[in-house]
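re: that chain from earlier
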Amino acid sequence: MLINKPRLNLRYANRGLDLKTLAVHDKKFHADDVLAAMLLRAIYPNIKIVRTRDQNKVEECDVAVDVGGSYDFENLKFDHHQEGKAGKRANGIEYSGVGLVWKHWGIEICKGKVDLFEFIDSKIIQPVDAQDNGQSLHTNLVFGVNDFNLDNINSMALNPSLTEKGMDDGLFEEAMDLFEYIFGRILKRQFEAFELKEQILKEYSKLEDSRFLIHEEFKPVLKFSSEMPNLLFYLYKDGNDKRWVIRAIPGKTEFTNRKNLPAKWAGKEGSALDKASGIKGMTFCHNNLFICGAKNKEAILKALRLALEN
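^ sequence. v structure.
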C-alpha cells in the first residue's frame, strides 16, 4: 500500500450489490479509470481488478469500466469509447468511466446529500471527464502553460517511466492508493463542511445587515456564498495564530470579488498598513484586495467599516 493509512471505507454505498471482479483496460492508465477503480474498490473491498482489453475476459467480470464498448447500467457496463459515447450532462460535459460510476454510486457515497454529490461532481469528476473526452474547460492565456490537475499528476508521475517495463499493473495499484487518500481527504472535509451549510444559511437569513458575517472561528462560508447574494465580507478569527481576518466574497468570475478591500491597502503590512488604513493593529493586505488581517477584533471591525464605505 503506497500510503500507510486505513483504507477508504465506502461499503455503505454498495447499492445491495456484491461485486467480485472489475474489468478496466490495461497498458497506460488515466485519471478516469484510476478514480473509477478506486471508488469501486472502496465500495467493494474484496473486488479483484482485471486489467485487460480482451472482450471475453471483460464479459467474465461482474462490472466493467472504461472498457468493453458499451454503457448499460443493468449489466454494469460503463464504457464511453463506443459510437454514440455514453451521454452528457446538461452543461455539455460528456461522461467518462468515472463519471458513469459517480452517476450511479455518487449519491450513495454522499449519503443522500444531493448538494454534496453535485459539488464533488463539479469540482473533481467533471474536470476528469472533460479531460478524458477531449473537452476544454479553459482558454489558455499563455501557450504551453496549463492547469495542473489529477490527469497531469497521473500522466506525468504515476504511469511507468521509459525504463519501468512491465510495471503497469503495480503502478496502477499505487495510483489508486494515492487517489484514494486524496479523495478520502476531500470526502471527509466536504462532509464536515456541508454539515454546517444549513446553519450558515439560517444565520445569514437572520442578519440585520446581510453584507457581512462574523464568526469567532472559521466556517466554510465562502463555499455557500452563491446562496447568500448580499454578502460582501466574511470575518473570522484564525485559529492558528488568533489574528482576525476579513475575506472578500468571490465574484462570479475568476479572481474577482463582489467588493474589493480599499485599493490603498494593497500589498501593505504592519505599520505601513496601519498608516494607509488609519487603524492600529493591522497585519497585512493581499495585493488582490481579497483578504487582510488584524491583531484583534476591534481592528478588524474598523477595517470592515472602511471596506463597506469604500
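The longest strand covers residues 233-237.
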